[in-house]
């Protein structure tokens, strides 16, 4: 499988990359880790005139853990897996990164590429929604921030405008007592999520004071299971409360069906995975 011919430029700065994108926002494409885009080119599902390699842009790199957490778009899955400061504050990054594909993919694939690509089975969308993340976007008219929960529109579709680059993910530092869990049922071939569940919650004296549950893999886009999260506030993580929250999450999911998993099966998995994720945090 050989891609159609294209030109290639290594962008030297964010401004350079945005300028190149602006020359032909529909025809020119950014490449970061290339682990989604290159197979797409080989299958000729995309034939950009110009590939703009952003992998050398320093502003898109790095993990900063301070009052807020900033993760540059070019941060690889392997870097998220290995970061000790990040693990201490948000261990969910390690939990999720550890479940992405294999070392080859983790060494090259980036969180920014994953979010911008918006594969409905990708892991990071659920994690950044559960953590109430904001995505910083830069384009020809300046910068803006979009809440992660509003970023994903549909299968492979986001609110990124033509000419925009995802710069970084910003996450509020969690309050004391916050607990996190990422679980997924992996597709046996790719490792992608058939259903993935990210949970961020805070327990105070055994009572849930904050909760965000986000689901990926089940539907056309990752989403926040709001009624499930709301149900838990002010309650303990009893078996009954967990079961009701899991049912709410499953009811909200308008599930996809494919050759591997039917919509009904995915709905069932949402219920069981939300239950298991919540139960694992009880007393954790
Ligand atoms: C065998 C295999 C198994 C995989 N398994 C999993 C898995 O289990 N879980 C999972 O979540 N993912 C999985 N992936 C996907 C992998 O994580 C990809 O690396 C990731 O989805 C895309 O990141 P990338 O840096 O390679 O992006 P690229 O392929 O470089 O780009 C992907 C798309 O995003 C755009 N883009 C990239 N960076 C930016 C940016 N900063 N701003 C705006 N647009 C941008 C590109 O133009 C392109 O359209 C798998 C991939 C493979 C090949």
UniProtKB/TrEMBL annotation:
InterPro entries on file: CO_DH_flav_C, CO_DH_flav_C_dom_sf, Diverse_Substr_Oxidored, FAD-bd_PCMH, FAD-bd_PCMH-like_sf, FAD-bd_PCMH_sub1, FAD-bd_PCMH_sub2, Mopterin_DH_FAD-bd
Alphabetic keyword roster: FAD, Flavoprotein, Oxidoreductase
Pfam name, any one: CO_deh_flav_C
Domain FAD-binding PCMH-type: 1-176
Protein name: Carbon-monoxide dehydrogenase medium subunit
Gene Ontology MF terms: FAD binding; oxidoreductase activity
């Amino acid at each position: 499988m050989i891609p159609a011919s294209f030109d290639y430029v290594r962008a030297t700065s964010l401004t350079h990359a945005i300028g190149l994108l602006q020359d032909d926002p529909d025809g020119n494409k950014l490449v970061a880790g290339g682990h989604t885009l290159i197979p797409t080119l080989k299958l000729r599902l995309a034939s950009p005139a110009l590939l703009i390699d952003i992998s050398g842009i320093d502003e898109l790199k790095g993990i900063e853990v301070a009052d807020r957490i900033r993760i540059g778009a070019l941060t690889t899955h392997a870097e998220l897996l290995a970061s000790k400061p990040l693990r201490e504050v948000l261990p969910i990054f390690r939990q999720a990164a550890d479940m992405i594909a294999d070392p080859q993919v983790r060494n090259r694939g980036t969180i920014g590429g994953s979010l911008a690509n918006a594969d409905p089975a990708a892991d990071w969308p659920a994690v950044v929604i559960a953590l109430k993340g904001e995505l910083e976007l830069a384009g020809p008219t300046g910068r803006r921030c979009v809440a992660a929960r509003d970023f994903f529109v549909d299968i492979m579709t986001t609110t990124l405008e033509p000419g925009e680059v995802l710069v970084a993910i910003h996450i509020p530092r969690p309050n004391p007592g916050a607990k996190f869990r990422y679980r997924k049922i992996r597709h046996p071939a790719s490792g992608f999520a058939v259903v993935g569940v990210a949970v961020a919650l805070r327990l105070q004296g055994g009572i849930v004071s904050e909760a965000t549950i986000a689901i990926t893999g089940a539907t056309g886009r990752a989403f926040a299971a709001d009624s499930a999260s709301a149900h838990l506030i002010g309650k303990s993580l009893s078996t009954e409360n967990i079961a009701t929250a899991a049912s709410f999450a499953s009811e909200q999911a308008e599930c996809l069906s494919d050759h591997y998993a039917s919509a009904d099966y995915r709905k069932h998995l949402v219920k069981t995975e939300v239950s298991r994720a919540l139960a694992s945090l009880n007393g954790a």
